[in-house]
What does this fold into?
Amino acid sequence: MHTTRRHTLHILLTCFAMMFGASSVPPEPVTGLKDYYTDFFPIGVAVNPRSLHGDEADFIKRHFNSITAENAMKMAPLQPAEGKFNWRLADRIVDFAVTNNMKIRGHALCWHQQAGNWLFEDSQGQPVSRDVLLERLRTHIHTVVGRYKGKIFAWDVVNEAIDDNPNNLLRPSKWTEIIGDDFVEKAFEFAHEADPTAKLFYNDYNCVRPEKMKRIYTLLKRLKDKNIPIHGVGLQAHWSIFEPSESELRAALDQYASLGLEIHITELDISVYPWEKERRAKQPDEADAFTDGMRQAQSDQYGMAFHVFREYRNVISSVTFWNAHDGYTWLDYYPVAGRKNHPSLFDANRQPKDAFWQVVNF
Ligand code: GLA
It folds into this structure.
């Protein structure tokens, strides 16, 4: 349905509901989130195989037309020991997407976390040589990318390589220790060999914060200058009601786009608490409530973000949420275990929140 007609219908239905005294019944969207964005970009969500059943699967099919494996395609879940590939969970996700005509973003081929220790050690537990690790990386990438060739349209090839310490460019890790900084280039080359048609992305967090943005830009520019096959940058949008500002977001999009890269918004959620990284215990004065102030701030922040995304539709070619609704979110466990967060467009009953309406009413 044409966007304007859909909105008119929605307004009419809401008016009827109010006229007939049903104003307390929250309005139901007449169509799925993705359908409001057909002229812009696919709308994705990260999933686990357990979300692909019953009502949850129906909800996902209704609102999203792209999926990403939250965990099932990371290095350790896929290859927990050398040569032992565990395809069951990843295959289920791919089958679900193919059956339902959804796009698939692959996540992630090389990361410093959730990578088995075996990668870096020989049978005596000693560090392997650069050549051995490169060969293991190549085999992993070729096997995984090869299996899903033609089904996965874009891969996060390297995840989170930039250090949190502003004095460094790359984060010190087993990858840099054993291979050196060019592990990033090698990963992209291996992925491109394995599927020359897949779009290859570098993915990271806090990439809209001005300081980190500059360092990510430096890395990406180096890769482009060396003709490394990289097609885009994934902005993990683990944002909050406190950041980013509209001007920071625009500045980052302009900067990355100036390299001729596509931009994917990946891992989108808008936490109602300030960003933190270190795990810590919940404090007694931390309430779980979703206050009116949070509701308003979150809906403004989502509204601002999607307004900018729509304006940048020529460079933003995908937007992926990290969790589908507030009933299940990784932010309930991290970094403050047990503190309820409310970062999604849908509440725990899968009902649209105010933020949803901000995102679709344009
Ligand atoms: C990072 C990773 C994701 C996921 C989140 C936490 O953003 O890229 O794969 O692990 O952390 O859910």
